[in-house]
Amino acid sequence: MINILIADDHPVVRRGLAFFLGMQKDMEITGEASSGAEAVQKASELNPDLILMDLSMPEMDGVQAAKAIKAKHPEMKIVILTSYADQDHVIPAIQAGASGYQLKDVEPAELAQTIRDVMKGENKLHPKITGHVLAHLSGKSNKISRLSELTARELEVLKEIAKGKSNKEIASSLFITEKTVKSHVSNLLPKLQVADRTQAALLAVKEGLA
């Protein structure tokens, strides 16, 4: 049996999910939670195999709850069931440890199959969600490839730019001339596909260089 904890702040939604999933021969509803904080508490108390988690909940949202639960119970599976399909919600949820992400318009039978597949160790995403994940990964790969174009010295200069240093200060830190710094800056901006030092600094910070 797959023991499931349902976390959603709408009682009607919880009842509907409990009714349908409770009819599955291989599933049992072990408990319900009406907030993210309660989901974290009941995850420890009830030790379910899987948590069906909404994102928008009081006290603690689904992403925060997922992070807290996975920190204490890394083996526990989490499937997000929400109305949000945008990248700003999808990516944080997956990064928090969710193995599945379904929208609330999903067919009940498909939701049940998602739960089974996740329990087998698979990652299951709604078709609308897959595109967001691929776009995110593609964008991240592009940033990494741009940084890989830089020489070791250009990377050092970029790190100093991210610290807000002027060309003169960078020259002093790296023991090179200010003219050489200007040359490196002129070379690295087009490689990073950015227009100015500010954009280069932001990219460096995002990639953890500063």
Helix content: 55-70%
At the fourth level of CATH, the homologous superfamily of the largest domain is: Response regulator
CATH architecture of the largest domain: 3-Layer(aba) Sandwich
Largest sheet: 6 strands, parallel
Can you give a write-up of this model?
The protein is an alpha/beta fold and 210 residues long. It has 2 domains: 2-137, Response regulator (Rossmann fold, 3-Layer(aba) Sandwich); 149-206, Orthogonal Bundle (Arc Repressor Mutant, subunit A). 57% of the residues lie in helices and 14% in strands. It has 10 helices and 6 strands. It has helices at residues 11-22, 36-46, 62-72, 87-95, 108-119, 127-147, 152-162, 167-174, 178-192, 197-206, and strands at 2-7, 27-33, 50-53, 77-82, 100-103, 124-125. A 6-stranded parallel sheet has the order 2-1-3-4-5-6, sandwiched between helices. Helix 5 (108-119) links the parallel strand 5 (100-103) and strand 6. Helix 7 packs across helix 9 (178-192) and helix 8 crosses helix 9. The longest helix has 21 residues, at 127-147. The radius of gyration is 23 Å and the shape is elongated. The N and C termini lie far apart (48 Å). 30% of the residues are buried.
